[in-house]
Design goal:
There is one protein chain. It is globular and about 50 Å long. The protein has 225 residues and is α+β, with helices and mostly antiparallel strands. It contains 4 helices and 14 strands. The chain has 2 domains: 121 residues, no CATH class; 70 residues. Strands 3, 4, 5, 7, 8, 9, 11, 12 and 13 form a 9-stranded mixed sheet that branches. Strands 10-6-14 form a 3-stranded mixed sheet, with no helix packed on it.
Length: 225
Amino acid sequence: MSHAAMPPARMPSESDRQRKNVNKTIDINWKIPRRVVFSGIRVDTSDLAMDQVRFNSQNEFLNQINTAAILLTLVDGESGDHVEVPLDFHIDGAISRDTIARVIEDVAHWSLPVRPVGADEAKKIFMNRIYDVIRFRARVNAGDNGLHPPNDYPVSITSNRAGDEILYANGHFYSTRSHLGYSSCSGLLPANRYSFGIHDASGARFHTVLVSVPLQNSPFHVPLP
C-alpha cells in the first residue's frame, strides 16, 4: 500500500454562510436528516443518513480495538482535484477484525495513497464529503425543479472482459464490496460521485477516478483488468 505524498484534498470555493448552514443542519445531534434544503433546493439525504449510521458504528468499533481509520486519496473526474475519502471496513453489513483485514488487503494491491487518522479526523473528512454530495445533488436537482428519490439514475457499465463482477464505491464512504452486476451491466444509483471496479480471482480492483452519476457519457467503461 503506497504512502506517497499527494496534494491535499481541495474543496471548490463556496460561501462560508452556505457551508455553515448545511453543517449546522447536519451537526444537530451529529445526525444527518432525511432531507436538506441547499440554496433553496430540496435534496434527499435518506441514503446518506443510513451511511452515517454505518460510519458511526465503524468509528466506535475502531476506537474499541485501538485501530486507525483509513483515508484514501482519489481523483475527482470533473475537477481533477485530489479528494480524501474514508474507507468503509464493512462487508455484508458487518464489521470485524477480519473484515478490516480483508478490505485493507484489497486496497493494498491498488498502490493508492492512504492516510491513517483518528476518529475526529475521519468524521471531519466524512462530513466534508457529505457536503460535497449535498451540493452536487442540489446542482443536479436544480435543472428539474424537483426532488429526486434515491436510486433514481440509470447507469450502464462495461469492463475489458465480459462477465466480470462490477463493483461501485461512493465518493463519501468508500466500500470495496458493493455489487452492481456483471459486465456489461445496468443499474440505478443515487446522484453522487463513484469509482467503479471489478472483482475476479485476484480480488477487488477499482478505477480510482471518481465519476459523476448521472453519467455524462453512457455506458461508462472501466479500464480493468
